[in-house]
C-alpha cells in the first residue's frame, strides 16, 4: 500500500513538473502589469486580473486571427485527411506498378526543410492568384501534413484484417462499396487520430504563415500574436501569456473529447513501418 | 449486383468529397471583387495598437479626400520582414508603400532595382522643410533619393535615473567610458545592475556596437567603403564592452531591444540604452521613477571624440513594382500632412521624432503630456538624431553603402562581440576573420 | 475463361487504385516535387533573394559550401541537438508511458497534462520558456536561488553549454508526449498473458520490461525514432525563436543557416545548396537506418 502511495506521489510529481510551464503561463496572464516585473516574482498573483484577456478580445485583432486559425486548420484537416484516406486505401489494398516506391517517396518528401520550400511555393501560389489568402496556407500546410497523414493512415489501414473486405466482396459489394461499408467504419479511430495530428500541426505552424500571408484578415494566431505583441520596443508578456492560454483552449477542448482515439487508434493499427 | 453498377455510385461519392473540398475553397478565397478602383497596401513593422490607431486616422482622412482609393494597412514582423519582402518582391505582389524599415535595407533593395526613386515625393512634401542633410542618408550612388525618413530615432541614448545617481553620489551625467563605468559601479547593487547592454546574437548588439566603435573614434568602413573594422579603435571598443559585462544582468547575453528596455523601465538596471520609447513606457509601467528619468548622448572613449548617435532612419519608400505608383506617391506625401503626422508621432512620443522643421515647432506637436514633461530630453534626442548615422551612412563623408543591411543581417558584428567578450577569443584573430567575412559580403 | 475474368477484374482494380492515389500524387507533384526541383535548380545559381535574378554558377555553391567551416560546424551542432533531444524524448517518453499505463490516481487528468506540451504551438512553448528562463523576473532562477542551489541567476540561453542544454531540454519537453502517445497505445495491446507467464517463470519487473515490453515495443520504436529524428533534424521554429542560433553560432543548426543565407544575406542560391546538402545528409542517415532495422527484422 505504501509502495502504491509512493509510486503515485512520484508519478504526480513528474506530471506536475512537466505541466509547470502551463501553470506559470496561466499565473502570469492573471497578474497585473505592475506585478509582472516584481523581483523576486510572486508565485501566486497578489491581485488577480482578467484585464489582459479583455484587452486582447476588445482592443486587438485576436478574434480575427482566431477565426482564421480555425478556418485554416479545419480546411487543412478535411482536405489532407480526405486525400490521404483514399491514398492510403490505394497504397495498401491495390496492386499496381510503382506502389512500393511511392511509399518510400512519401517518406523522402519528409526530408525537405520547409525553409527552402517557401520561396518556390510562394511563387507558385502567386502564379495561381492565391497569394495572401487562407487557402494559400492550406496548400502550403499539405506539404508537411499530407506525408504524415498518409504514413499514419497507411499503418492503420494495414491493421484492418483483409478478410473483412474479402467477405464483403464475396457478398457482392463493389470495391468502393466495401470501402465505404467495411473499411471506413474500421478506420474511423485512425481517421480521427490522423485528423487530430493534422489539426495540431496546422494550428501551430509558424514559418509558412509568417512568409505567405501578410494581411490581418488572413493571418493565423501564431504569427498574428507574435507580430502584435513582440516588437523592438516591447515584449508584452502579460498579453502574450493571456494569448497563449486562449490559443491552447481549443486544443484542450478537442483533445478532452477525443483523447482516447488518439491512443486507441495508434494501438489498433500498430505503427508499422 | 455488378461491379460497374456500383462503380457509378462510387464516382458520385468521390464527386461529393471533391465538391466539399471545392466549397470550402471558395469560402477561403479573398473577396477581391468588392475592392474599389485602387487599393494601396501599406506595410510597416511598427504596429503597436496606438500607432495603428494613428495610421487608421491618416488612412480615413486620405480616403475621404480621394474617393476611389482605398488603403489597407498591414503589419509586418519586426524580425521577419526580410523573408516577407523577399517573397513580395520576387512574386511582384508588392505593397505600394512601406514605412519604418531602416534606411540601409532600402538601399539594398534600391541597388537591385526594386525601389522607385522618391525625388518627386520629397518635393511634394517640401524639400526645404527638412532639417539640413536629413535626406542625405537616402541619396543613392546615382544621385536619386530612394525614399525619405518618416521620423528620426536616436537609438543609443544613455538613460539615467537621477534618484539613483544622487543616492550613489554620482554628481554629473557620464561623458566618457571611465565615468560611465564608475557611475555604473557606484549604482550597481541591491538587485540593481549598472547597464543593460546587449550581448545577444541579434541586430541590436550589432547596431549598438557599431556605435561603440565610432565612440572609440573608429569606423566599420572607410568613406570609400573599404573594410576598416580591424583597428585599434575597435579593440578599445571591445575592451570597453567586455569591461561592462559584469555591470550588466546575467541574461544580457541574450538581450535585444525589448529586454534591454524592460530592464531599465522596470528599475532592474540603473542606466539604459535606448530611444525615446523609454519615456512612454516608464510613465505607463513604472510611474514611480518617471520624475527621475533623463537622457544624454552615449559616453565615448574620451571627450576628444564627438558623440555618435545611431539613427536607423525609419524610412518611407515605394516599391518599383507597385501598380499604383501615382496614388502611392500621393499617399506617401500625405503621410506628412501635419494633423495625421503629429498623431503618428504622438503614438510614440519622443521615440519617433519629426523630420520636418515645421512640425517640431508646431504647437499641436508640442501639445503632448510627455513631450511637454521631458522637453529638454526630447530636444536633445531630436538634435542628436538629426546628426545621427548608421551603417549605410557612417558619416557625412561616407558613400552610400547598399550592403549595410546584409552586414547587420549576417550577424557578423554581433558574432564579433560574442566571440571576444563572451568566449574570450583572441581579438586579433577574430577581427581578422570579421574583416574577411564583411569583405565577402561586400563582394557577394 | 474464369482466369481471364479474374485478370480483367484485377485490371479494373488496378485502375481504381490508381484513381484513388491520383489526388495524392497530384498534390505531391505540385507542392513538393516542384519546389524540390526548384530548390535544386536554384542551388546552381548565384541569386539575390528579393528578385530571384542571378547568374549560373554551376556547382560553385557546393564547392564553396564544402570548403566552408560554417557548414560542418552547423552540421555538428545539428547532430548534437538531434541526438540529444531525441534520446531524451525516447527515454522520457517510454518511462512516462510506462507510468501512465499503470493505474495511478486521476489517470486521464495526468495523461492530459503530460500530452499538453505537444499540443501547444511552438511559438507559445518558446515564449513561456523564455519567460521562465528570464534572468531578472524568471521563476526558475528565483526558485533555484531560494533553494540555495545557485547564488547568481543562471544565464540559460546566452552562454554555452547552457544554451545547447536549454534548447535540447525544451525540445525534449515539447516533443516527448508524441513518444508517450505511440508507446502508450502499443502497451495497451500487449496481452496480459505474456506477463503472467513471465511472472510464473519468476521474472522480476525489470526482467519483464526487457524480455517482454521492449521487444513488443520494437516495431513502434523503430518508426517513432525515424519520424522524430527527421523532424528534430529539420526543427526551425523552436531554436530560431529560443536562441536565434546564439551565442555566436553555438546553436545554429542547418535550417537556421539556410534561413540566414536566404533572408539575411539574400543569397538564395547558396541557401538552396545548403538545403540540398542537408537533405542528402538526412537521406544517407535514413537509408542506413532502414537497412539496419530491416536486417534485424529478417
UniProtKB/TrEMBL annotation, chain A:
Keywords: Cell membrane, Membrane, Transmembrane, Transmembrane helix, Transport. It is a multi-pass membrane protein. The chain crosses the membrane at residues 7-27, 70-92, 104-128, 134-153, 182-203, 237-258. Residues 66-258 form the ABC transmembrane type-1 domain. Its main location: membrane. It comes from the Bacteria. PANTHER family: INNER MEMBRANE ABC TRANSPORTER PERMEASE PROTEIN YCJP, MALTOSE TRANSPORT SYSTEM PERMEASE-RELATED. This is ABC transporter permease subunit. The lineage of its organism: Bacteria, Pseudomonadati, Pseudomonadota, Alphaproteobacteria, Hyphomicrobiales.
TrEMBL record, chain B:
InterPro entries: Bact_solute-bd_prot1, SBP, TAT_signal. Pfam families: SBP_bac_1. Keywords: Periplasm. Transmembrane segments: none annotated. Its main location: periplasm. It is found in: Periplasm. SUPFAM superfamilies: Periplasmic binding protein-like II (SSF53850). Gene3D superfamilies: Periplasmic binding protein-like II (3.40.190.10). PROSITE patterns: TAT. Belongs to the bacterial solute-binding protein 1 family. This is Extracellular solute-binding protein.
Automatic annotation (TrEMBL), chain C:
It comes from the Bacteria. This is ABC transporter permease subunit. Residues 75-289 form the ABC transmembrane type-1 domain. It holds the Pfam family BPD_transp_1. It is a multi-pass membrane protein. Belongs to the binding-protein-dependent transport system permease family. It is found in: Cell membrane. Keywords: Cell membrane, Membrane, Transmembrane, Transmembrane helix, Transport. InterPro entries: MetI-like, MetI-like_sf, UgpAE/MalFG_permease. It comes from Hoeflea alexandrii. The lineage of its organism: Bacteria, Pseudomonadati, Pseudomonadota, Alphaproteobacteria, Hyphomicrobiales. The chain crosses the membrane at residues 20-42, 79-100, 112-133, 165-185, 238-259, 271-290. CDD domains: TM_PBP2.
